Amino acid sequence: MSTATQLARHASKRDLVAALDLIDAALQVGTEAQFGGLMRLVFDVLPIQRADVCVAEIGTDNAIVRANHRVSIDYPQQWIGVYRRRGYQRIDPVARRLFVEHRPIIWSQLRSQHQTPVEKEFYGTAAEFGLTDGFAFGARFDNSSAGSFFSCVGEDLASNKRHRVLLDFLVPHLHVALSRMHMGHQRDKPKLTPRELEVLTWAKYGKTNWEISSVLGVTSRAVKFHLENAMRKLNVVNRTQATAVALSLGLIKWS
């Protein structure tokens, strides 16, 4: 997740206000209608024209088995039908890599890497529905074989630092919002110690363990210990997810 410092460096004040408003809206999501409204706000911040968001069932090989609970905004429904009938989740390079690489996937970058006859057919069919430029992102839900799968049609992010930083900043919060809608309830707030909260607060700004240790006057090993404890209590696998979830739950402050 981009830090607030990185966001301030590459985004305007208007972007910052819009991002914070969007994150506040993400905290209120509990229904599909509310989630659809949230995605419309995303369209105002990022160069997205259409989006399809679903809960993906993930196999043991990290491939997508099927998709459920779709929220589509101006996405070609005929393409979704073709995608299902032809079993494209087994061919789609994004679907095969999303839950392995744990980062936003830019379509054009994959298209240049995958040119087998089957993949060319897939890309050609997608192009017939206007699905040429865009990106996808997602992550597993906690203690689940399912995860979020966001497919967005829009400007290629590779050449625009502002868009990439904003996307990176917002992704964890969109994932948590979809998770909340999927699970149907707010997750309980875990009890973090004051030191764990301090470490997460500094991690929020992108500080390394060494930098945090210098600020708090403790060893880097102590910072690592407290950070790992916080991650375990929040049921996440890295510090980026830990800060996003802690912010979403109101355990640490934005400012």
Brief account:
The protein has helices at 4-10, 13-26, 32-45, 77-85, 93-101, 107-113, 117-128, 161-183, 194-203, 209-216, 220-234, 239-248, and strands at 48-58, 64-73, 105-106, 134-140, 146-154. The chain is an alpha+beta fold and 255 residues long.
Helicity, in percent? 40-55%
Q: Residue-averaged pLDDT, rounded?
A: 85
CATH topology of the largest domain: Beta-Lactamase
Shape descriptor: globular
Question: Which characteristics define this entry?
Answer:
255 residues, 12 helices, five-stranded antiparallel β-sheet, 2 domains, Beta-Lactamase, alpha+beta, Arc Repressor Mutant, subunit A, single chain, 54% helix
Describe this structure in words.
This protein has 255 residues and is α+β, with helices and mostly antiparallel strands. The protein has two domains: 4-183, Beta-Lactamase (2-Layer Sandwich), CATH 3.30.450.80; 194-248, Winged helix-like DNA-binding domain superfamily/Winged helix DNA-binding domain (Arc Repressor Mutant, subunit A), CATH 1.10.10. Helix content is 54%, strand content 15%. It is built from twelve helices and five strands. It has helices spanning 4-10, 13-26, 32-45, 77-85, 93-101, 107-113, 117-128, 161-183, 194-203, 209-216, 220-234, 239-248; strands at residues 48-58, 64-73, 105-106, 134-140, 146-154. A five-stranded antiparallel beta sheet has the order 2-1-5-4-3. The longest helix is centred in the last third of the chain and has 23 residues, at 161-183. The protein is globular.
